[in-house]
């Protein structure tokens, strides 16, 4: 645990140094595309046309942007190191060329690695009458960390609520008076190997990793409006290889999960169902896809232009209704899986229960109607907030996590490792492990 905090703390310090120097890159490592944005922090006030409080405060502008087709990434995790390294280099170099500046530090986000959420609680008696930074550190270190298993790493650990005596719902208790301080903390753990692979891949590209985040979390930061983040909403980030899920309440993420299904599975269903290559299937899905069939769709014929050399095979046509018949069951399966995760998280107990669909996979026509039927809530399609200098091509739902990473870099939320934890109160995991070893082996 301590080593992890040291590495997270080192990344946070590196990010601060990079931001003081003025330039940092954002890297969204997805299963279908790798996007890179170069940010310049200048402290200048953005234009008055910006949307939302975060965009209004952010003193940065995007000066370079590039995307490339993702290679070597599957289910949001790196599968082929050399291929992914090449794709990251391509995206970063193109973004640097546009920005005309060299970038050394990147902040990355990824969607896979099986995120799991934990709610922790801790409380301490105050040493003085007024809450100090030291008291906040003590109450955070008093949280009892669950045994989340070998081979897992903490990705986020954010205090989501403070209570002072009988008053709950405090965002920042420092400077207030009371006797007893309590906190609720949300912790997300991920598969350690996936994080190590990403860090190693970034290092192989001669870059320094200055931060790491969960895609579903940053997509929620970019796509949910302020009221939705406050009252309780879910962001469903439909990517190529996996569908991320994050629930927000009081402007904090309180739950994160991922479903290992995404838009690429729909494409492969079309490829197998129509016996066409994946590239053709992707084109057909993009131009003609949908999930709700109407009477007109039987008559709308789609040419399956093949290049096998077999004239009969290459000149086939298929009706749009047949295409929808292939796509709909897979989309329903993804949404049913998301519904199960939302139910497990207790989403129905939140006051607002708004659901926002974002990510590249959310652009299938008719998806919001089907989602509201299956998920049984108010569903809307979300686009990321406008940030200063972002090219028009990067304003669609597929760039929600990249834009969210910009906001995350400019306004990071307090995490456990931002506070100087008292050494004697570090979670005593190594001690517990030693005791268990004695019990098992003595």
TrEMBL record:
The record ties this protein, via CDD domains, to:
ASKHA_NBD_FtsA
Domain named SHS2: residues: 24-223
The protein's role, per its UniProt record: Cell division protein that is involved in the assembly of the Z ring. May serve as a membrane anchor for the Z ring.
Offer one example of a GO biological process linked to this entry. Answer: FtsZ-dependent cytokinesis
Q: Which UniProt keywords apply?
A: Cell cycle, Cell division, Cell membrane, Membrane
Family under the similarity heading: Belongs to the FtsA/MreB family.
Q: Which SMART domains match?
A: FtsA
Annotated Gene3D superfamilies: 3.30.420.40
Q: Which GO terms describe its cellular component?
A: cell division site; cytoplasmic side of plasma membrane
**How does this chain sit within the bilayer?**
Peripheral membrane protein
| Gene name tied to this protein | ftsA
Q: What quaternary structure, including any partners, is listed in this protein's UniProt entry?
A: Self-interacts. Interacts with FtsZ.
Q: Which superkingdom heads the taxonomic lineage of this protein's source?
A: Bacteria
Q: What is this protein called?
A: Cell division protein FtsA
- Compartments, record wording: Cell membrane
């Amino acid at each position: 645990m301590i080593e992890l905090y040291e590495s997270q703390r080192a990344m946070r310090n590196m990010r601060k140094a990079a931001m003081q120097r003025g330039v940092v890159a954002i890297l969204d490592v997805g299963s279908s595309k790798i996007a890179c944005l170069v940010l310049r922090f200048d402290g200048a006030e953005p234009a008055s046309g910006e949307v939302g409080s975060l965009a209004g405060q952010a003193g940065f502008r995007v000066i370079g942007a590039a995307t490339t087709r993702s290679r070597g990434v599957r289910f949001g995790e790196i599968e082929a190191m050399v291929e992914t390294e090449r794709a990251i280099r391509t995206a970063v170099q193109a973004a640097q060329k546009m920005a005309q500046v060299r970038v050394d530090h990147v902040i990355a986000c990824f969607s896979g690695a099986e995120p799991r959420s934990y709610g922790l609680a801790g409380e301490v008696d105050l040493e003085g009458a007024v809450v100090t930074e030291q008291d906040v550190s003590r109450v955070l270190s008093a949280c009892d960390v669950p045994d989340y298993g070998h081979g897992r790493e903490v990705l986020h650990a954010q205090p989501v609520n403070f209570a002072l005596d009988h008053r709950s719902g405090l965002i920042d208790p420092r400077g207030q008076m009371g006797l007893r301080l309590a906190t609720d903390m949300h912790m997300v753990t991920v598969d350690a190997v996936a994080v190590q692979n990403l860090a190693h891949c970034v290092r192989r590209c001669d870059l320094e990793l200055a931060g790491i985040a969960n895609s579903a979390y940053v997509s929620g930061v970019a796509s949910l409006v302020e009221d939705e983040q406050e009252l309780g909403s879910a962001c469903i980030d439909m990517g190529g290889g996996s569908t991320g899920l994050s629930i927000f309440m009081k402007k904090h993420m309180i739950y994160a999960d991922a479903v290992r299904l995404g838009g690429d599975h729909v494409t492969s269903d079309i490829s197998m169902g129509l016996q066409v290559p994946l590239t053709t299937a992707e084109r057909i899905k993009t131009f003609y896809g949908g999930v709700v069939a109407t009477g007109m769709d039987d008559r709308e014929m789609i040419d399956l232009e093949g290049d096998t050399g077999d004239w009969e095979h290459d000149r086939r046509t298929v009706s749009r209704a047949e295409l929808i018949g292939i796509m709909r069951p897979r989309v329903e399966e993804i949404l049913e899986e998301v519904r199960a995760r939302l139910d497990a998280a207790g989403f129905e107990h939140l006051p607002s229960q708004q659901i926002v669909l974002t990510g590249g996979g959310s652009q299938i026509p008719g998806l919001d109607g089907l989602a509201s039927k299956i998920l049984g809530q108010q569903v809307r399609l979300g686009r990321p907030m406008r940030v200063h200098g972002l090219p028009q091509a990067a304003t669609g739902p597929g760039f929600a996590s990249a834009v969210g990473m910009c906001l995350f870099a400019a306004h990071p939320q307090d995490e456990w490792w931002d506070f100087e934890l008292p050494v004697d109160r570090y979670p005593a995991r190594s001690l517990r492990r030693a005791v268990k070893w004695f019990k098992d082996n003595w």
